[in-house]
Automatic annotation (TrEMBL), chain B:
This is Aminotransferase class I/II-fold pyridoxal phosphate-dependent enzyme. It holds the Pfam family Aminotran_1_2. Belongs to the class-II pyridoxal-phosphate-dependent aminotransferase family. It comes from the Bacteria. Its cofactor is pyridoxal 5'-phosphate. Keywords: Aminotransferase, Pyridoxal phosphate, Transferase. GO terms for molecular function: pyridoxal phosphate binding; transaminase activity. The keyword RNA-binding does not apply. It comes from Acidisoma silvae. PROSITE patterns: AA_TRANSFER_CLASS_2 (PS00599). Residues 42-384 form the Aminotransferase class I/classII large domain. The keyword Endoplasmic reticulum does not apply.
Length: 88, 400
């Protein structure tokens, strides 16, 4: 199971592929980065981002849980928890 | 209070500055299923979803007028509180019979049908699997349900299968939701493959035939008929506001106990039922649709002529000919300019801008009707091609 650090690195790699995200924006990503505000994503772009993450992590992240995710750190914790649950 | 919509206010101001606001067009008069008067000018309507041209069908109008005179202008309440009219019962029997289903229930709009059915079917522990390009009514229905919602890649049965495998160990029912024809690009779902995934994984399947009812299939039963998978489709949802020329929505099913949804679906219970004149005209429209299969053939001939004409001119279109033909453009500004120039030439189409479009494309969306004449289609191809050349999108300037 990947560590939270690996999860963060993969998230940043996916962020780099998103439309409208410049290399500088991706370089500046921290666990505190707000997904909607700092990455300039609208609601559809967030759903597409989640879909890319699901593919990268071989998992599902139900949209109803996304409402509770504000930052990149929230996202990493949600994915790590889901992977731990699946591995259990 | 409205400050949160500053970005929308700004976008609308930009649209107004570029000419007519495409989202607030108000016709002076509707002249026929395919023409209207707008600011004193007669325009060809190529963006109505009036696929079979039944809005002015004499028998539908006569039936509606008769119901209006005998049963009044409205029901003034929901069927749960105010009771059901005979016209509602007749329409539900007609829907079920047309689709070869045991039961059907009707809603006041198609939007409400998706809201009401999805929220009622999928409970807290259940899972909704939505095609990524689903209509807003499907997304809104999923939000009203308490289910866990997972998107899969558009028209990708393998991606759906993969996600269902991830969910295999989770409790609750899984409901797959797809559409027959997608409203933005006119593309069609690979329904036979989706049905195979449904069978293998034990999920349920709901197909929204909003744009395909009366359009696809030897008998007009939609994509499920074409794909030969009606037995695999657990719930058929659709609308009366497109091929049937009126307003309202429905869900039809063979599932035992389906009737319980009438007291579980809030979008059915807590809104006024459709006026009897509407129910009567839709019932008649089903009969016309069944009696005149030639309307579908004319529709498809018109759709093919428009698609081939625009394709030959060099435009980027949706993947297959269908009654929805969309010209794909590279920017919202170009699409707005294009739309205004078409209107000036007397052609009304729909403008679809990101984020409401797949892959954030800017689209000039057209929808063809069986009521269009060959001359209408030629006029549309010529007008779109001329404006495309004027804007440097197609033609010699591009080839050079």
């Amino acid at each position: 199971m990947p560590s939270e650090k690996d999860v963060n690195a993969t998230i940043v790699a996916v962020i780099r592929t998103l439309d409208g995200v410049t290399p500088a924006m991706a370089d500046a990503v921290t666990p505190e980065t707000n997904i909607l505000r700092d990455l300039n994503l609208d609601s559809i772009a967030v759903m597409d981002f989640i879909m890319e993450l699901e593919t990268a992590f071989n998992t599902v992240i139900p949209l109803d849980t996304v409402a509770e995710i504000a930052t990149v750190g929230d996202l990493a914790r949600a994915i790590t928890a889901e992977q731990a649950r699946t591995a259990a | 209070m409205l400050g949160k919509y500053a970005h929308l206010t700004q976008s609308l101001a930009g649209l107004r500055a570029a000419g007519t606001n495409p989202f607030t067009v108000a016709f002076d008069e509707i002249l026929s299923p395919t023409s209207a008067r707008l600011n004193g000018q007669t325009v060809v309507l190529l963006g109505t979803n009036n696929y079979l041209g039944l809005t002015f069908d004499e028998s539908c109008i006569e039936t509606a007028v008769s119901a209006l005179q005998t049963e009044g202008t409205g029901t003034t309440g929901s069927r749960i509180a105010n009771g059901t009219y005979s016209a509602h019962v007749a329409l539900e029997k007609q829907v079920a019979s047309f689709l070869g289903r045991q039961d059907a229930m009707v809603f006041t709009t198609g939007y409400q049908a998706n809201l009401g059915i999805m929220a009622a079917l999928a409970g807290r522990d259940d899972h909704l699997l939505l095609d990524a390009d689903s209509h807003a009514s499907i997304y809104d229905g999923s939000r009203l349900s308490e289910a866990q919602v997972t998107r899969f890649r558009h028209n990708d049965p393998d991606d759906l299968y993969r996600r269902l495998k991830f969910l295999a160990d989770k409790p609750g029912d899984k409901l797959i939701v797809v559409e027959g024809i997608y409203s933005m690009l006119g593309d069609v779902a690979p329904l036979a493959e989706f049905a195979a995934v449904k069978r293998e994984t034990g999920a349920y399947l709901l197909v929204d035939e909003a744009h395909s009812l009366g359009v696809l299939g030897e008998n007009g039963r939609g994509l499920q008929e074409v794909a030969g998978v009606e037995a695999d489709v657990d719930f058929v949802v659709g609308t009366f506001s497109k091929s049937l020329g009126s307003i309202g929505g429905f869900c039809a099913s063979d599932m035992p106990g389906f009737e319980v949804l009438r007291v579980a679906s809030r979008a059915y219970m807590f809104t006024a039922s459709m006026p009897p004149s509407i129910a009567a005209s839709v019932t008649q429209a089903f009969k016309v649709m069944a009696a005149k299969p030639e309307l579908r053939r004319t529709l498809m001939r018109n759709a093919d002529a428009l698609y081939q004409g625009l394709s030959k001119a060099g435009f980027r279109l949706g993947p297959t000919p269908s009654p929805i033909v969309s010209v794909r453009l590279t920017s919202p500004e170009l699409a707005v300019a294009f739309w205004n120039k078409l209107l000036a030439r007397g052609l009304y189409v729909n403008l679809a801008l990101p984020p409401a479009t797949p892959a954030r494309e800017s689209l000039l969306r057209t929808s063809v009707s069986a009521a269009h004449s060959e001359a209408d289609i030629r006029f549309a191809v010529d007008a779109i091609t001329a404006v495309g050349e004027e804007l440097g999108i197609v033609g010699a300037a591009v080839v050079a």
